[in-house]
Write a structure and sequence with these properties.
By secondary structure, the chain is mainly β. The protein is about 0% helix and about 50% strand. It has no helices and eleven strands. The strands form two sheets. Strands 2, 4, 5, 6, 9, 10 and 11 form a seven-stranded mixed sheet that branches. A four-stranded antiparallel sheet has the order 1-3-8-7, with no helix packed on it. It is globular. The model has no long low-confidence stretch (mean pLDDT about 95).
C-alpha cells in the first residue's frame, strides 16, 4: 500500500516562497507519476503539476508555469513543489497524488490511484 505524506505548508506573505514535500513509501516507484493538486474553499480540486518518476518529465497547469516547479529525489522517495511569487489566490490545501503509469489525463484528479492527506498553504496579502 502506497503512503504519501505531505509537509511544508504554512502561512506566507504574498510575494514569498515555500517548498512543499511529499514523502512516498510502500513499494518501489518505477513508472509512477507523482503530482500535486490544490483545492481552495468552495472550489474543485485542481491540477498543479506532475512529474514522471523514472525520467523526470514535468507537466504544469498553464497558469502556474514559471512560478511553480516540481522535482523529485528518487534516493529520498520524495517529490517537491517549489512555489515562488506566491499570491493570495494560491491559498488552498495542497495534495500529493500518484498513479502507476503515465496517462494523457494527468490533469484530472480522477486518474490518480493514491493520495496524501493534504497540507494547508495560506498566503496573506
Amino acid at each position: 500500500q502506497v503512503l504519501l505524506v505531505e509537509s511544508g505548508g504554512g502561512l506566507v506573505q504574498a510575494g514569498g516562497s515555500l517548498r512543499l514535500s511529499c514523502a512516498a513509501s510502500g513499494r518501489t516507484f518505477n513508472n509512477d507519476v507523482l503530482g500535486w493538486f490544490r483545492q481552495a474553499p468552495g472550489k474543485e480540486r485542481a491540477f498543479v503539476a506532475a512529474i514522471t518518476w523514472s525520467s523526470g518529465n514535468t507537466y504544469y497547469a498553464d497558469s502556474l508555469k514559471g512560478r511553480f516547479t516540481i522535482s523529485r529525489d528518487r534516493a529520498k522517495n520524495t517529490v517537491y513543489l517549489q512555489m515562488n511569487s506566491l499570491k493570495p489566490e494560491d491559498t488552498a490545501i495542497y495534495y500529493c497524488a500518484g498513479r502507476r503509469a503515465y496517462s494523457s489525463q494527468l490533469y484530472s484528479p480522477g486518474v490518480y490511484d493514491y493520495w496524501g492527506q493534504g497540507t494547508q498553504l495560506t498566503v496573506s496579502s
